[in-house]
Amino acid sequence: MTDLRTRQRELGRQTIVDACADLVTERHHLDFTMREIAERAGVSLRTVYNHFPTRQDLLAALGSEFNDQMQIRGGREVGDVHDLDGMLEAIASNHRSFEEVGGISEAFAQMPLADVGVDASRAERTTAIVQLMTEAMPDVPEGDAQAIALMLRHLLSHRSWFWLTREYGLDTETVTRVVQWAVRSLVDAAESGDLPAPADDNASH
């Protein structure tokens, strides 16, 4: 009986998270009430609060669900990538996973960058990506290498995939090819000495 109750509770929790993802995906923002979530999930407001005492708890669960679904579908963690070729392969596998996750992936893209608890490892991933990419450009001055690496970090993000596919209408295969090309092009250009113009040069134009 205990196992049955546990499964029922997990199912109820999942239903609420899915309802939240659906609502956020439809609205393209996080402006919802817990009562609206209850109505969408077909449960009582009390049930929603039993699972998630606050909206932040619900959003954190949505973020965790996105990460879990990415892992199930073969999404790559930065810690699994050790060179540029691995990064290019990770772009392809992660883009496929973003698409397969569907509504939860789209809802996750609406979450604020600074939303505490939704994606607590974001800063760690950024640090790891910057370190990996700067190591791929050993002959580039440190300041330029870091700036280029952060640009690459932006290209690799879930939000970049979301905007290019959902807002601008590109298909995931095209986005993958273009992002891989952009990453290779930026690294090759930096290594060949084609770096951003110094601030003084910019000011003279």
Task: Give the helices and strands, then pairings.
Layout: H1 2-27, H2 34-41, H3 45-51, H4 55-72, H5 84-101, H6 103-108, H7 122-135, H8 142-156, H9 158-167, H10 172-191, H11 199-203
Helix pairs in contact: 1-2, 1-4, 2-3, 5-10, 7-8, 8-10
Strand content: under 5%
Mean pLDDT: 86
Tell me the Rg in angstroms: 20 Å
Q: What gross morphology would you assign?
A: elongated
Biggest sheet record:
none
Order of helices and strands: HHHHHHHHHHH
Work out the helicity level: over 70%
Number of helices: 11
Regions with pLDDT < 50 over 5+ consecutive residues?
Answer: none
N- and C-termini, Cα separation: 75 Å
Structural class: mainly alpha
Query: What's the number of extended β-strand segments?
Result: 0
Counted up, domains total: 2
3D structure, described in words:
With 205 residues, the chain is mainly α. The chain has 2 domains: 52 residues, Homeodomain-like (Arc Repressor Mutant, subunit A, Orthogonal Bundle), CATH 1.10.10; 122 residues. The chain contains 11 helices and no strands. Helix 1 crosses helix 2, helix 2 crosses helix 3 and helix 5 runs antiparallel to helix 10. The radius of gyration is 20 Å and the shape is elongated. The relative contact order is 0.10.
